[in-house]
Amino acid sequence: MLAFLTRWMLGAVLLLSAALAHSAPKTVLVLGDSLSAEYGLTRGSGWVALLEQKLRAEKVDARIVNVSISGETTSGGRTRLPALLTQHKPALVVIELGANDGLRGLPVAAADANLRAMVDMARKNDAQVLLVGMRMPPNYGRDYTERFFSMYNTISTQMKAPLVPFMLEGVAEKPALFQADRLHPTAQAHPVILANIWPKILPLVKSR
């Protein structure tokens, strides 16, 4: 009888744990730079905050953790990611990094290696990955800008990671959508940025 009760209690605990895990909101970790950190914006007006609002409106149960830092590079993200994965245990990691590498003219090969390492880290921690790509201004030279832009697609193809090719699609060519520094989008641009990201992120959030 004692053995039966022990087995019954163990089974009940396992079922309860599974139910709680299933019902818990999915954590989405956004690892980005100033484009995701609301640089120069009123809090709550950037694309990450808008994403949280839209998921709530769509009744998608997800918890958004935005750990983006202005000025962050792929090297910095690679360094910070292990502790963030341990702390937050995300189901999905959005990697929006590389712009500062490009603006500083850092080697594309180094950014490539850092991004691949982050994808690998996230997957080893049972998280899906969404890459968010970036383009450099043409004044950086055709060879560098093309290698930089194609880097994201190559990683996406080889590592089978979903990709938003260019987060500033529909924004980059409109000067009125940028702040005075001509680098950071205004609040009016962030709904457009979310519209670029939404079709790729929604299936990933719903799939876990």
Account of the protein in words:
The chain has 208 residues and is α/β, with parallel strands linked by helices. The protein is built from seven helices and five strands; from the N terminus they run αβαβαβααβαβα. It has a five-stranded parallel sheet with strand order 2-1-3-4-5, with helices on both faces. The termini are far apart.
Tell me the distance between the termini: 39 Å
Order of secondary-structure elements: HEHEHEHHEHEH
Give the rounded overall mean pLDDT: 92
Q: Rg to the nearest angstrom?
A: 20 Å
* Order of strands across the main sheet: 2-1-3-4-5
Strand content: 5-15%
Low-confidence stretches: 16-21
The proportion of residues forming helix, as a percent range, comes to 40-55%
Number of strands: 5
Q: What is the approximate shape?
A: globular
Sheet with most strands: 5 strands, parallel
Structural class: alpha/beta
Number of continuous helical runs: 7
Gist of the model:
By secondary structure, the chain is an alpha/beta fold. Helix content is 51%, strand content 12%.
Give the helix/strand layout:
Layout: H1 2-23, E1 26-32, H2 47-57, E2 62-66, H3 74-88, E3 92-96, H4 99-103, H5 108-124, E4 128-132, H6 142-159, E5 163-164, H7 190-207
